[in-house]
Amino acid sequence: MTTPTLRPPSGLNFLIAAKRCEIDALRQLSLTSALVNVTGRLVHSLQRERGLSNLFLASQGTRFGEPRQQQISECRVIEGELRRCFDSLDTHTAHLGHGARLFSRMAYVLHGLDALPALRQCVDTQGWTARQATDAFARLIAGLLAVVFEAADSASDPAISRQLVALFNFMQGKEFAGQERAAGSALYASGRAERGEQQRLLHLIDSQERCLEVFKEFASDELATLWATADQDTMAARAELERMRRVLCTAAPGSPLDASQSLPWFDCCSLRMDRMKTVEDRMADSLQRLCEHKTQLALSELLDFQALQPAAPGADDALSFFQEPVPEHVAGSGQAPAYGAQVDRSILDLVQDQARRLQSISDELDTVRASLNERKLIERAKGLLMAHRQLSEEEAHKTMRQMAMNQNRRLIDVAEAVLAMADVLPERRR
Amino acid sequence: MTTPTLRPPSGLNFLIAAKRCEIDALRQLSLTSALVNVTGRLVHSLQRERGLSNLFLASQGTRFGEPRQQQISECRVIEGELRRCFDSLDTHTAHLGHGARLFSRMAYVLHGLDALPALRQCVDTQGWTARQATDAFARLIAGLLAVVFEAADSASDPAISRQLVALFNFMQGKEFAGQERAAGSALYASGRAERGEQQRLLHLIDSQERCLEVFKEFASDELATLWATADQDTMAARAELERMRRVLCTAAPGSPLDASQSLPWFDCCSLRMDRMKTVEDRMADSLQRLCEHKTQLALSELLDFQALQPAAPGADDALSFFQEPVPEHVAGSGQAPAYGAQVDRSILDLVQDQARRLQSISDELDTVRASLNERKLIERAKGLLMAHRQLSEEEAHKTMRQMAMNQNRRLIDVAEAVLAMADVLPERRR
């Protein structure tokens, strides 16, 4: 009994299907990078609102009311943009597997945005301290940055992933700078050096610098240079920032600080953050252009593939599958293969080229993503503490930060130590 | 100027969207595991055809013609099934990002299947040696196993990924057993021990055992036991296999071998492979059931989510976002939150639970996937040799295998050594 072999769907169909997958993933990335762009602008706007809210609260509501209201209006406009952008992702997106994490982060952000009016009311009525307000804004901003992180972690193109990693680290570094601004401003304003806050400042400076290191590693030369230049151009401002940092961090605990330096510190930090924002904007633009460029490239490859006609292979031609692939330098040397074998052979070549390219993309992605591991390890350690010591997320984070400060170690080292204990802790699952 | 806050898409929408992503990915996995099932059956059928083709060629076409033809018919039926399965994936699949690699592997397989009739003709006319035919079948089977590998590598659910990793390693181990059968059969038939072939046999036995180790590590206890039992039940056959292996591998190169042992060797190996197939079938069934179970679970969670009504949060309730999450042991202790806060708070809790769960899924996936790294490293090293020493894939693989044999090292160690040289080799890209 001989069943005829079915052969309509040739390898060419799947060569094309694979290319379509790439294109869909790139289009997805274009949407995601638009989302990252709006997210970055909202983060910046919220950082400014946080700063102004602090100044407003510090002045017992006597100053900065007007600029704070203007800033709130700006935030609302960008928030509207972000919500529309979220909406369009929900509607236009195939529900990709990795999308679950992105959507889950977005759900969290939306809860935070819904809660913003209530937060503002607490500031309006001066019902919260500056520190409470700062922490609340920081939590929302952390949620927004987590969206950018997921975008970077799920990108399927190494060049784009690289830029997203650079951008995420830059944004995270800028947020540490923002927290430094708030903490330093409050410390100056208090008029007295305090050990815990000084430690916190040192950690924020350290974390900030490590983020900028990673940024430099992954950014394009052009953007890394742009940031280096921006930093150079304002050398005087940087020197002033470093001087004020030194005063803040080296004052003996309990000794007096000049409270009038609070506003100059604030302005000096703000200048730096605004400068960072211009670099960030350039990165977001360049990311968007890169996504479009890559999509166009893939589309034109798709057209090339679609123009190919699969040859019905004769018995001899078909055997090429089982024979050694022609090494590249021989294939390029002008030896013409027999007519008829040409087309089919070249599709097989294309299939193998594609497989190789996809493999090297995947290898490169693994490398780029490894750089996101630090954050993942910290998250994992936090989860472990929450599960085994019955802590809330906030408590777990504070515990680790406290361990880091007490032992004068980096947060990542503490996370690794916590994870190393995992084996001796009782398992919850399985 | 105050722009009203847009708030229709609440966090709940994205909680649901994230769940939909999970469901779509699980459905995808159901299709993929059906594909893996058919792939496994075709591999087994081709392994039998390869064996019978070898015996047919070794007998100069005087024996095994009839069973070979029957086997070819069986192969054709399953090939038809596989092609239909490929088709349905192309049509029913959102073009997921990781799908590109899977489709690219499928394109390669289809080329191989198109070339099968030509291969069979070479066997019919005895135009090829047994070794040539074996290598040709092995290449096609390697392509089919690569499909299973990609399925395992792209699975988004840790439990399913774990089973796919177990299954892939089992199938790969069985293929090494099949190559051992062919090589040993030919070596006995040749009547004379030969150093190169003896080395090759030892490597095949070693590779096989390492695959089965990984299988044991990742298989469910039930399936690992099933295989252990199947192996025990036929202890006599296993002892005979080990005896024949010893004779083959320890004979002094050049000394005579008993050619009449070729067929008993073949039968002994075949018995083992058939036993492996029954375990493999059980794994494929269990995989399919697991996919369905997980999909049902996720669907019922989706229904739960959809039944929730987002509360329009009052100002006070909304602030829960900025306050410490209630630790699990407190939340479960019966303290009733104020009415109104209940619903909204519980959605925020759900969002945070989901985020934590997705994070732990992602961590676990990283761990499972790490086990696929060995193969990836070998592929990457091969790619490096191809690029820098202008070798074909086949040549690169042979070179590495040769290095492993000469230096008495495992292939993975050679791959790591090759990759360690990468830095001193000239870069092609960037």
Task: Give an overview of the whole structure.
The structure is a homodimer of 430-residue chains. Helix content of chain A is 79%, strand content 0%. Chain A has 430 residues and is mainly α. The first copy, chain A, folds into two domains: 13-296, no CATH class; 373-424, Arc Repressor Mutant, subunit A (Orthogonal Bundle). Mean pLDDT of chain A is 83; it is low at 1-9 and 326-343. Chains A and B meet through helix 1, helix 2, helix 3, helix 4 and helix 10 of A and helix 1, helix 2, helix 3, helix 4 and helix 10 of B.
Keywords:
Arc Repressor Mutant, subunit A; 79% helix; mainly alpha; 15 helices; 430 residues; disordered N terminus; homodimer; 2 domains
Map the helices and strands.
The structure is a homodimer of 430-residue chains.
Chain A: H1 11-58, H2 65-92, H3 99-124, H4 130-154, H5 158-190, H6 195-218, H7 221-233, H8 235-250, H9 262-307, H10 315-318, H11 328-331, H12 341-370, H13 373-389, H14 393-407, H15 411-420
Helix pairs in contact in A: 1-2, 1-4, 1-5, 1-9, 2-3, 3-4, 4-5, 5-6, 5-9, 5-12, 7-9, 8-9, 13-14, 13-15, 14-15
Short description, anyone?
The structure is a homodimer of 430-residue chains. Chain A has 430 residues and is mainly alpha-helical. Helix content of chain A is 79%, strand content 0%.
Distance between the termini of chain A: 50 Å
Can you write the helix and strand succession of chain A as a string?
A: HHHHHHHHHHHHHHH
Number of domains of chain A: 2
**Which pair of chains has the greatest number of interface residues, and how are they split between the two chains?**
A-B, 104 and 104 residues
> What is the share of helical residues of chain A?
over 70%
Beta-strand level of the residues of chain A, as a percent range? Answer: under 5%
What is the approximate shape of chain A? Answer: elongated
Rg of Cα set of chain A:
27 Å
Low-confidence stretches of chain A: 1-9, 326-343
- Helix run count of chain A: 15
Q: Which structural category do the helix and sheet elements of chain A fall into? A: mainly alpha
What is the makeup of the main sheet of chain A?
Answer: none
Question: What is the oligomeric state here?
Answer: homodimer
